[in-house]
Design brief:
The relative contact order is 0.21. Helix 1 runs parallel beside helix 3. With about 80 residues, the protein is mostly helical. Helices cover about 55% and strands about 0% of the residues. It has one domain.
Amino acid sequence: MTQTSKPTAAPVTDVRTAERMVTEISALAGGGEHYQATFLEADLWEGVLEAVAGGHAQAAYLATAALKSKEIDFPRQKIA
């Protein structure tokens, strides 16, 4: 993928989705796709924040799953 295309993330509505996104972020980062990994991580966090703000029943579990993306070591790119 080029740096001009942003991946489309699925809505974060359950813990499995959040965990799947973290796995995808890891795969992208491991493959050198740091820009795409950064965008997907931002989408994940935004989706989880929306769930928390909306009073999602599993908000704490979603947040815990999303925070696991911070454990992935890759150079985060600046998002304009």
